[in-house]
């Protein structure tokens, strides 16, 4: 075996030996005056220098990008494939045919009631007291974005003439806020201030406000819109889910900004005050809180259902305010991201795929709680990759704006960490689309040694769908219900890098939705098993297909001037709202 030390030494000796005895032409020239060849080299160098100055004057990023790649900043910065050239006004141009294919998919869908059942072609409502326009309102801003004027005229007329919130039934506070209130506010902005949308949004928010009249100030999980009373969730009496209570911020604050009435702002800000005070020692959030006491109760910790948008809104969702004016949220975000890295980010055994695990509490006979790390990741977690990448360019940036993609030296240490994890998580989510339909399941489990699954087993090497057996009815985990989280991250990753890879993946996902979820009766349906072809359908089309999945796909293929990330935030249902300079200051810190 070669001793590296010896080899090094020998190479050094050789170099010295060849350089010493025979003087080069260049050395000779230096000693004895400038030769013709030497003069030519000097002139060439001067010409090159002049060219570099000219290039730099034309576009300073060209040279700095070149330098970055020569010096070799971090493996992640080098793996990006060149995207479509940023055009001369600094935008990522649209892929028009693909963008228009997404518009066609959107147009095929019918307006329904709260929920649409595409196979039976029927609508249904969330309450026997009647609906509140979940489907139509969740879709309006996408119509406006796609310039679907006829569809928008129909939807607007429905809102103006048929929409009623005088419903004596219980509606989920969070869902009503993110879909209906968020949808109306976004429609107001994108319609250049059509007053009907603000009027309806204000009426709805006023009807929701009583939820905050709880002993702790955390909102009740349900609201009776006609009675104006907060209602407990009968399945989880006394509890509220952390994601749900913390994800009303953006909509209520924007409404305060528009109306000048600070009651909405103060109600939701108080929720964040309670959550901040309830911080657990590890910095993570359990998925349930006590509505009586305003503290976390021992329950699972995860970035998926009931946890997801708490982390999501800590970042840019809570930044309808301009940079730095509310540092408390950046601090909470940084704290939570460090905790996620310390406790939840894992690598799969074989291919070292990055994923997030869950912590499940287990109580022994004496009441002592220990935490079991479970290698389970919901599709919902796929928002996190793009969100971390965006966060790295905000709270983790040393300059504003950063380059596209950001350079290593433009980010803080935590920004670099979050960017790297974000890129890896997006990749993992793309990899979970490696199924018979090309669509990813609702829940994946990553293999760990204690599974007892050997490497010769039929299961995929790194992850699998728990409970899936050939011939048996597929488990809940195997479904794809038209969720948007992967394409949301692809959209963010594309905007932040310009890497064509993300558009390619988005296009593959869109084609898989067209092929396997589209039903002959019109619309798109949930499929019950992503690993089964032809796909079996369930008669349900979630409204987030229109508000999120198709919108993010459209934006992925549109040019980057549409809803630029430095001027818009998206609520968790993908309703874009403008970033504004707040006039309300409460001193919360
Ligand atoms: C959407 O309703 C929202 O994104 C919510 O935060 C959780 N996920 C669904 C879509 O999957």
TrEMBL record:
Gene Ontology biological process terms in this record: carbohydrate metabolic process; ERAD pathway
Residues annotated for Ca(2+) binding in this entry: 572
A Gene Ontology cellular-component term: endoplasmic reticulum
Domain of life, per lineage: Eukaryota
Organism (species): Tricholomella constricta
Disulfide bridges in this chain: 382-429
Catalysed reactions, semicolon-separated: N(4)-(alpha-D-Man-(1->2)-alpha-D-Man-(1->2)-alpha-D-Man-(1->3)-[alpha-D-Man-(1->2)-alpha-D-Man-(1->3)-[alpha-D-Man-(1->2)-alpha-D-Man-(1->6)]-alpha-D-Man-(1->6)]-beta-D-Man-(1->4)-beta-D-GlcNAc-(1->4)-beta-D-GlcNAc)-L-asparaginyl-[protein] (N-glucan mannose isomer 9A1,2,3B1,2,3) + 4 H2O = N(4)-(alpha-D-Man-(1->3)-[alpha-D-Man-(1->3)-[alpha-D-Man-(1->6)]-alpha-D-Man-(1->6)]-beta-D-Man-(1->4)-beta-D-GlcNAc-(1->4)-beta-D-GlcNAc)-L-asparaginyl-[protein] (N-glucan mannose isomer 5A1,2) + 4 beta-D-mannose; N(4)-(alpha-D-Man-(1->2)-alpha-D-Man-(1->2)-alpha-D-Man-(1->3)-[alpha-D-Man-(1->3)-[alpha-D-Man-(1->2)-alpha-D-Man-(1->6)]-alpha-D-Man-(1->6)]-beta-D-Man-(1->4)-beta-D-GlcNAc-(1->4)-beta-D-GlcNAc)-L-asparaginyl-[protein] (N-glucan mannose isomer 8A1,2,3B1,3) + 3 H2O = N(4)-(alpha-D-Man-(1->3)-[alpha-D-Man-(1->3)-[alpha-D-Man-(1->6)]-alpha-D-Man-(1->6)]-beta-D-Man-(1->4)-beta-D-GlcNAc-(1->4)-beta-D-GlcNAc)-L-asparaginyl-[protein] (N-glucan mannose isomer 5A1,2) + 3 beta-D-mannose
Name this protein carries in UniProt: alpha-1,2-Mannosidase
Obligatory cofactor(s): Ca(2+)
Region (Disordered): 1-30
One annotated GO molecular function: mannosyl-oligosaccharide 1,2-alpha-mannosidase activity
Keyword tags: Calcium, Disulfide bond, Glycosidase, Hydrolase, Membrane, Metal-binding, Transmembrane, Transmembrane helix
Family listed: Belongs to the glycosyl hydrolase 47 family.
Gene3D superfamilies: 1.50.10.10
Any Pfam family hit: Glyco_hydro_47
PANTHER family: ENDOPLASMIC RETICULUM MANNOSYL-OLIGOSACCHARIDE 1,2-ALPHA-MANNOSIDASE, MANNOSYL-OLIGOSACCHARIDE ALPHA-1,2-MANNOSIDASE-RELATED
EC number(s) from the headed UniProt entry: 3.2.1.-
């Amino acid at each position: 075996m070669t001793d590296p030390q010896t080899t090094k030494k020998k190479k050094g000796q050789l170099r010295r030996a060849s350089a010493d005895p025979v003087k080069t032409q260049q050395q000779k020239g230096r000693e004895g005056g400038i030769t013709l060849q030497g003069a030519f080299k000097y002139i060439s160098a001067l010409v090159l220098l002049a060219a570099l100055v000219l290039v730099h004057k034309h576009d300073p990023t060209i040279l700095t990008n070149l330098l970055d790649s020569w010096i070799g900043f971090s493996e992640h910065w080098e793996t990006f494939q060149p995207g479509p050239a940023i055009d001369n006004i600094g935008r990522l141009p649209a892929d028009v045919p693909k963008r228009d294919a997404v518009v066609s998919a959107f147009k095929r869908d019918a307006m329904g009631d709260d929920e649409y059942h595409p196979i039976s072609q029927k609508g249904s409502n969330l309450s026997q007291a009647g609906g509140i326009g979940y489907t139509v309102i969740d879709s309006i801003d996408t119509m406006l974005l796609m310039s679907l004027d006829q569809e928008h005229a129909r939807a607007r007329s429905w809102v103006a003439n048929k929409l009623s919130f005088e419903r004596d039934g219980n509606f989920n506070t969070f869902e009503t806020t993110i879909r209906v209130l968020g949808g109306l506010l976004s429609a107001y902005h994108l319609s250049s201030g059509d007053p009907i949308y603000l009027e309806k949004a204000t009426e709805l928010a006023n009807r929701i406000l009583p939820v905050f009249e709880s002993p702790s100030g955390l909102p009740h999980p349900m609201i009776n819109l006609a009675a104006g009373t907060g209602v407990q969730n009968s399945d989880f009496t006394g509890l509220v889910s952390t994601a749900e209570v913390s994800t009303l911020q953006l909509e209520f604050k924007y409404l305060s900004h528009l109306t000048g009435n600070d009651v909405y702002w103060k109600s939701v800000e108080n929720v964040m005050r309670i959550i901040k005070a309830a911080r657990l020692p590890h910095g993570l959030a359990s998925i349930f809180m006590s509505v009586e006491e305003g503290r976390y109760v021992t329950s699972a910790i995860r970035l998926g259902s009931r946890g997801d948008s708490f982390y999501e809104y800590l970042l840019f969702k809570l930044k309808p305010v301009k940079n730095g004016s509310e540092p408390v949220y950046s601090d909470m975000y940084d704290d939570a991201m460090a905790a996620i890295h310390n406790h939840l980010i894992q690598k799969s055994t074989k291919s070292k795929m990055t994923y997030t695990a869950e912590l499940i509490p287990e109580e022994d006979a004496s009441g002592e709680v220990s935490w079991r790390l479970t290698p389970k990741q919901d599709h919902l977690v796929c928002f996190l990759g793009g969100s971390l990448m965006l966060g790295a360019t905000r709270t983790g940036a040393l300059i504003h704006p950063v380059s596209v993609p950001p350079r290593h030296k433009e980010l803080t240490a935590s920004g670099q960490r979050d960017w790297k994890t974000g890129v890896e998580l997006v990749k993992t989510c793309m990899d979970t689309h490696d199924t018979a339909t090309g669509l990813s399941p609702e829940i994946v489990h990553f293999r760990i040694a204690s599974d007892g699954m050997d490497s010769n087993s039929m299961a995929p090497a790194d992850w699998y769908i728990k409970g899936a057996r050939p011939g048996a009815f597929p488990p809940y985990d195997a479904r794809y219900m038209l969720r948007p989280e992967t394409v949301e991250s692809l959209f963010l990753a594309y905007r932040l890098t310009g890497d064509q890879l993300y558009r390619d993946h988005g296009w593959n996902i869109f084609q898989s939705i067209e092929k396997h979820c589209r039903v002959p009766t019109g619309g798109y349906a949930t499929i019950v098993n992503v690993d089964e072809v032809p796909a079996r359908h369930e008669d349900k089309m979630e409204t987030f297909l229109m508000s999120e999945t198709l919108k993010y796909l459209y934006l992925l293929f549109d040019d980057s001037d549409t809803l630029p990330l430095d001027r818009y935030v998206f609520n968790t249902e993908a309703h874009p709202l403008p970033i504004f300079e707040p006039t309300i200051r409460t001193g919360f810190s």
